[in-house]
Amino acid sequence: MSTEESAFNPRIRLKDEWRKSLIDYPFGEIKDDSVRISYQSMQAPELMNIVEKLHVADFYNGETDFQKILALMDYVHGISCKDGNHASPAIMNTDEIMKVAELGQLWCWDYATVLTEMLLSMGVKAVTVTCIPRLFDYDHHVGVMAYLSNSAKWVFLDPTFNTYFYGKEPMDIFEIRSAYAQGNAPKFRHITIQKNWKLILHNIEYDDYDSWYSDYMLKNMFRFILPKNSAYGCRTSNAETVFLLPNGYNTRNEYDDLKDSCYTFDIGCVLQS
Q: 3-state DSSP: the chain helix, strand, coil percent, rounded to 5?
């Protein structure tokens, strides 16, 4: 498609704008030892409780870390129906989310919270990651970063859509972002949710989930929010929050109205082994 033709294609124009933001503000290696994500021990009573109560180990099975994690994500993805009204837990933790899971749709942060806490309960380093666009548009997405000890590799997981990005191996959020910036939309596992409703992104309707999701994640891969202490119930508490910013970006908008927040440009805060 020529530049002139793309100027009249709203989808191409939006993708070009989102990609330009990633190019203009890249992530890079910056050492900042003052900010590090910590991970709750699997011996914590709250985590041991969900292992026993919800039989987490039964769903965490496979030969490799990644196979076990994918098996657990398959389970978490299926805990809620995918239509009807949204079900909102009273408190943001696995116990409360599971109580309402069968009543209606869960939000992305519900799925991410359950997967993160269940992974922690299995001794896997995992943390929820809120992916947000450069410009505030009343929308963002939440997934999970998990550490594969077998391959010493981080991977971004999306239990809402039961998918993950991959190249030669599973990708983390920075590898995904870099691929988008280079104009190479990264591959991801096919989304199998049945499309029973319109898929709309910035007033553009999509025919299928895969094309919608590819653009949706391009939009939301600008910067990230993480809890500084990844632990059971941390999304409910007033625990410190880390805003992970690309180089050169210091703007604040409506996404930044969180208390007890700190800001860093250091991707090492989450990529520690």
A: 35, 20, 45
Mapping DSSP to helix (H, G, I), strand (E, B) and coil, where does residue 220 land?
Answer: helix
For the chain, the C-alpha Rg in angstroms (whole number) is: 18
User: For the chain, which residues score pLDDT lower than 50?
Assistant: 1-2, 4
Give the C-alpha distances (Å, rounded to integers) separating 78 from 105, 136, 159, 212, 257. 11, 30, 9, 21, 32
How do residues 30-42 score in pLDDT, each as one tens digit? 766 678 899 999 9
Token pair for 120:
């922690």
Please list, in sequence order, all residues whose beta carbon lies within 8 angstroms of the beta carbon of residue 82, skipping any fewer than 6 positions away: 105, 193, 194
48-77, pLDDT tens digit by residue?
999 999 999 999 999 999 999 999 999 999
For the entire predicted model, the pTM comes to 0.94
User: Average pLDDT of the chain?
Assistant: 92
Burial of 98 (0-12, 13-18, 19+ CB in 10 A): middle
SS3 assignment for 149-183: CCCCEEEEEECCCCEEEECCCECCHHHHHHHHHCC
Beta-bridge partners for 158: 163
Q: Which DSSP string do the residues of 84-138 spell out, in sequence order? A: SSBP--SSSSHHHHHHHGGGSBPPHHHHHHHHHHHHHHTT--EEEEEEE-SS--S
